[in-house]
Design goal:
The chain is mainly α. The chain has 15 helices and six strands.
Length: 362
């Protein structure tokens, strides 16, 4: 389309201003006018509006209303998260990056391609699970906005999270545990011990209140968990000893862990000082479950102790420890296994096929 071509319904309200308007009739037969901006955008929009009118699409009463920004939707989403999620602080931390990137943009004008490109641009600094958490948070922002009827278009709907490979889960070896214990400050050792001995999720452990803890019975009552219903956490002797130490210094406070909402010292200081990699606080939970499996505890019991919602979640840990599998196959080298194999060879030599036995006919 050339500069001299005139498009019906596109006009410059103030000649020479460079600001173009469109005029059309909507599905109800009402005359509509909209301020657009540049002429090419006006030409595209007027055609889009006419197509919508022919299709019978109902237009908003006020098309000139200020578009809602992503920052406004993010605030609504955080309010919802704070009311509905125990681990909302994760959303608060991650939302800062989303607002920095998209905050002042009109929420409905952000395209799926822009979202994907931004997520992909973080590949060097984010792991795949981290990428998926940001993607899930962004989708939550738009989902809450749809529920509040603040938007009509959701650009995040076609943006998919990428499949994570959970076949191998990071857990702490005995040697790594010794290195961590050597560098963890004594004030934080009870936190570490309880995390390792109970497998509680971070939000469960650091949201714990003393009325939930029964040291005599050796149980912790969690009224609500990440997967919904409450559960009981069993305390072994080491966990009870750590709990009693914390109780002695609690000075009547209801909160079990007074210094932290989350253990920033662990990954920023302890893991670095121990010269280890790939370990987070959640690794303690992976370690708890994997050690139960390696100790021969049946998967149903492991599922209950870990508070997994399904047995499929527990099954992810079945092949966690190569060392445990190596120990199993190494049993074939034991004297009893060798004797059994020798007896089998004697009974049926591999060089001599077993004699066939004629069937008996009655």
């Amino acid at each position: 389309m050339t500069e001299t071509t005139k498009v019906r319904g596109v006009f410059e309200k103030v000649p020479g201003s460079g600001v173009w308007w469109i005029q059309y009739f909507d599905a109800a037969g009402r005359r509509r006018r909209e301020k657009v901006g540049k002429k090419p955008q006006a030409e595209k929009l007027v055609e889009k509006r006419r197509v919508s009118a022919r299709a019978g699409v109902k237009m908003p009463e006020n098309l000139r209303a200020r578009p809602v920004t992503f920052r406004e939707l993010a605030k609504d989403a955080l309010d919802w998260s704070r009311a509905e999620k125990k681990s909302f602080y994760h959303d608060e931390l991650r939302m800062k990056q989303l607002i920095a990137e998209f905050g002042n943009r009109a929420a409905e004008q952000i395209t799926p391609g822009e979202i994907r490109r931004w997520l992909d641009s973080k590949a060097a600094e984010w792991s795949l699970p981290t990428r998926n958490r940001y993607c899930a948070l962004l989708k939550m922002v738009y989902r809450v906005a749809e529920q509040h009827e603040r938007i009509r278009a959701n650009p995040s709907r076609s943006v998919k999270q990428r499949k994570e490979n959970n076949a191998r889960i990071r857990y702490i070896t005995d040697t790594e545990e010794m290195k961590l214990r050597a560098v963890i400050d004594n004030d934080h050792l009870p936190e570490f011990e309880i995390g390792l001995m109970t497998g509680m999720r971070l939000s469960e452990q650091f949201g714990l209140m003393w009325p939930q803890v029964d040291l005599d019975a050796g149980v912790i009552r969690l009224p609500q968990t990440k997967v919904g219903p409450g559960r009981f956490v069993r305390l072994n002797d080491r966990a009870k000893a750590a709990m009693r130490m914390l109780h002695d210094f609690s000075a009547g406070d209801e909160r079990v862990f007074l210094l932290n909402k989350k253990p920033r010292w662990f990954t920023k200081q302890a893991v670095r000082d121990a010269q280890l990699e790939g370990i987070t606080w959640h690794t303690l939970r992976h370690t708890f479950v994997s050690r139960l499996v390696m100790a021969g505890v049946d998967l149903r019991t492991v599922m209950e102790l870990a508070g997994h919602k399904t047995i499929q979640m527990t099954m992810r840990y079945a092949h966690l420890a190569p060392g445990h599998a190596e120990e199993a196959v190494q049993r074939l080298c034991s004297p009893s296994a060798t004797s059994a194999a020798s007896a089998t060879r004697t009974a049926t030599s591999p060089l001599e096929a077993p004699k066939s036995v004629a069937p008996t006919v009655n």
